[in-house]
Every structure is written in C-alpha cells, then in structure tokens.
Amino acid sequence: MSTMPGPCRVSDPAVFGRVAVLMGGTSAEREVSLASGGNVLEALRSRDVDAFGVDGVPALVELIGKGRVDRVFNILHGGDGENGVLQGLLQALGVPYTGPGVLGSALTLDKIRTKQVWMAAGLPTPRYVRLPGGDDRGPEDIRNAARELGLPVFVKPSCEGSSVAVSRVLTEADLDDAVEVATSYPGELLMEQMVVGDEFTVAILADGTTHHTLPSIRIVPAGEWYDYNAKYVADDNQYLCPGLEGRAEDEIRRLALAAFETAACSGWGRVDVMRDRTSGAFLLLEINTAPGMTSHSLVPKAAAQVGIGFEELCWRVLEGTTGEGLTP
C-alpha cells in the first residue's frame, strides 16, 4: 500500500489567494486550536502564502463579507469547526476550505452516529450504549449501561474531542466519578467497551481525488492511558512509527481508509484504532477531521516518516481544498 502522495500539484503560492487560517473559537478545544493554528500560520507564511489568522467563525464571516478571504485553512477544533456548520456556511458563500465537506464533518464529530454508519457497513468498532442528553439521562442509566456492557468501559461525550470530559471506568468504585462528570455534561454520551490492547492512529492525506494512508503510529503513553494531558502536555510518551509491520500494517491502513471514506470524509484527517491484545483484531474508535498541528500532534509525525516536513504538510493540506479547484 502506497504511503507517499505524488509531487505537490501547486508551485506558486499566489494560486491559493488570501488564506484565512481559522483557529480558536469557543469550543472546549480552543487552546489546542490556537496552538495548532499558530503553527500552521507560520508554516504557510514561510512558503510565501498570503495567510493570516482568524479567531472564530463570526470574525471569519465579517472578513468574507468584506471580500478579504479567498480560501480557508480550517484548524478550528471541535464545535462549529468540525460539525458541518462552518462547512455549510463556506459552501453557501462559495469559499473553498480544507477538510471534509458538510456530511463528513457533521457525521464524524458525532461518535455515536459514526459508529452506527461503520457497523452498517460491516466495519469493526467496540460495543457501546448511547446515553441520551439532558433530563432524559439519570445516574442510574449510567450504572445500568455499565452493567450491560460489562467493565471496563469509557464514558465520553458523543460530540467532543481531545479526550475532553472522558472517564475511564475499571471497577464499580469508579462509576461514581464517571457519573459526576457525565451528569455535568448536557449532551449525549457514549459508553464504550474498553479494548485492552494497543492504541494506533492512521493519518489520511489527499492527493487530488486519491486518499493516501500514512504510516500508522502506535501510541505508548507514559501514564495509564492517552488522556488530554498525555496528548497536549506530557513529553514522556512514546510514538512508534510505523506502529506495525508487514500484513498487520497493511491491514490497519486499509481499515482506516475504509472508515474514512465510508464516513464521507475527504481532504485530510486521522483515524484512531485499537488492537485487541488477545485476538489481534482492530477496532475503530473515531475520526478527527481537523487534526491537531501542535508539537505533540500525530499527523506531522506520520508525514515526517515519509519525508514530508511540517511546512510541506500544511501546503499539501491546502492543496486538498474542498470546493473550487486549484489551477497550478
């Protein structure tokens, strides 16, 4: 399976026009988005792209209305940056943007609906229980769901990323803490059977209309699991790339690509996968359609493995703009 996209399709940065790097916003992932956006902005400017930072959707709409935006590099993590709202807005206004379109973005931010689509397509994913939001969910619902699935489990918001508000429940004693976190979150929750094994991620990068998988990364957190602190703060995790060899590497990348395309995704993204330690089976967790681009982020690590540096990676993502085609 090819790991290397072809040559860059654009050589003149002027082709991209005025590029708004959209970051920040109001979601729980604001700080991570600002860090990612700052890195992307610096990388694009280093290659003479006429790029500038924009904090949040309202500021972007104002600039579009004034005719100051030709293209958007979306690095707005979570919320309206990944739920289809931004994508629909830009599509209606005729402004090209990076990442998947309306359907792929809206679907994959919702972990429950993504799993339903995967299961309908026969793709493997851990067993789960949907916990309704708001007043329709009580503490006993969470305990009953844990009994149905059997411990250990994860409890996580269906529509958040970066391990925000995620609880790991190993024993009955952990349920009280999970209930406390869960009851403070108003939206739907996903309770998912915990897979005991190794965690992997596979980056996807478009080259024209073709999607390429980059080498898998095996994530070995220094702590007990890969939580928010491990993702964005800690410096003692291990990232093994490629994470696998031979047939297993081919298999995980085929599965990741199938998951990405089945969920109507395009452009670029990252697919998270677990491998059961006992059976060796791969199980899909989720898709990130605006992956982090911080010093701890995984897509740049995978790209570097095949000789694509950070600046070139940002350029290639911009080449994959959804909407108006690029003319090299």
From TrEMBL:
EC number from the UniProt entry:
6.3.2.4
Catalytic positions are: 29, 162, 297
Gene Ontology biological process: cell wall organization; peptidoglycan biosynthetic process; regulation of cell shape
Residues bound to Mg(2+) 1 are 272, 286
Q: In which pathway does it act?
A: Cell wall biogenesis; peptidoglycan biosynthesis
Q: How is the cofactor bound?
A: Binds 2 magnesium or manganese ions per subunit.
Cellular localisation:
Cytoplasm
Give start and end of each ATP-grasp domain.
115-319
Coiled coil, from the record: none
Q: Which keywords describe this protein according to UniProt?
A: ATP-binding, Cell shape, Cell wall biogenesis/degradation, Cytoplasm, Ligase, Magnesium, Manganese, Metal-binding, Nucleotide-binding, Peptidoglycan synthesis
Reaction(s) this enzyme catalyzes, per UniProt: 2 D-alanine + ATP = D-alanyl-D-alanine + ADP + phosphate + H(+)
The Gene Ontology CC terms held by the record are: cytosol
Q: What Gene Ontology terms describe what this protein does at the molecular function level?
A: ATP binding; D-alanine-D-alanine ligase activity; metal ion binding
InterPro entries recorded for this chain?
Answer: ATP-grasp, ATP_grasp_subdomain_1, D-Ala_lig_Van_CS, D_ala_D_ala, Dala_Dala_lig_C, Dala_Dala_lig_N, PreATP-grasp_dom_sf
Q: Does the keyword Phosphoprotein apply?
A: no
Swiss-Prot/TrEMBL cofactor(s): Mg(2+); Mn(2+)
The protein's superkingdom reads Bacteria
Q: Does the keyword Cell membrane apply?
A: no
Positions annotated to bind Mg(2+) 2: 286, 288
Give the protein's biological function.
Cell wall formation.
NCBIfam families on file: D_ala_D_alaTIGR, PRK01372.1
According to its UniProt record, which protein family does this protein belong to?
Belongs to the D-alanine--D-alanine ligase family.
Q: Which PANTHER family match?
A: D-ALANINE--D-ALANINE LIGASE (PTHR23132), D-ALANINE--D-ALANINE LIGASE B (PTHR23132:SF23)
Indicate what this protein is called per its UniProt record. Answer: D-alanine--D-alanine ligase
Supply the gene name: ddl
